[in-house]
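ESCALATION

Customer reports they have been waiting on this structure for their group meeting. Please prioritize. Original submission:
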Amino acid sequence: MSLSLPPLTTPVRMIGGRRFDFAREIAVMAIVNRTPDSFYDGGRTYELDRAVESACTAAAAGADWVDIGGVPFSPDTPSVGESEELDRVLPVITETARRSNVVISVDTVRPEVARQAVLAGAAVINDTSGLHDHELAEVVAESGATLVITHSLAAPGQHLRRPRYDDIVTEVRQFLADRVNLAMALGVPEERIVIDPGHDLNKNTLHSLELTRRMDEIAVLGLPLLAAVSNKDFIGEATGLDKPDRLAPSIAAATICVWQGARILRMHDPAAATAAATMIETIAGFADPQYLRHNLD
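Update from on-call: job pushed to the front of the queue and completed.
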């Protein structure tokens, strides 16, 4: 089976000064959590110098952009106020922008954080709330940044216990289509919107697996599709592996997502993800091999 990605309405985009052709390119988004209670690294990059170093190391490893977050998605973590969130993310943005030309994304649901993040050097606002606060779209519209719209039903910081869907893929696709239309009505042009089906966000493992195997039904919306599957609970429950051992199945899930239409991979290990993306692009014929030697002598 060849890789035949669904067509995009605007495949070529300028994001943070970088040109992306999502008709022939798989981008890697690295993750930098400046939180003491990150679900994956438990606060390894909470200190400012470590957060900046992680961002710059990811860029050096091939990541196209880094996603900086100051507030965990999980409602089970202590609440973080707006002022504290700004204190966490702004110095990382500023210093990363000074040291690297990597695209900087900020994971936030707050309009004021988004506004100040863009002023500090961020080019992408990654909203995991599905535009719960409409003002966020207005801020992005005024800023010129790119907006990631993620499927998520509960209000930020709230649980959705035992989520139920009649058809997870159909409902996620309709939700994203509606939110894209909302964002456009609030001034965000379509060419500055990315969509994310939100693996594990207000979903159980069976929901996330179904989304993964049917990502092409989301990709038909015609916007670059982000897959954030790295080390998530559905990976652990599918394989029985603890977080430190989930790299291989995370790469496998990400690859399936690409084959079903994803263009952007949000991953904890940027070096491994970049190598995987390069291999996928080469198999698909989007890129040439780095060199040819085998059986040619």
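Sent to customer with the following note: The first strand starts at residue 12 and ends at 15.
Escalation resolved.
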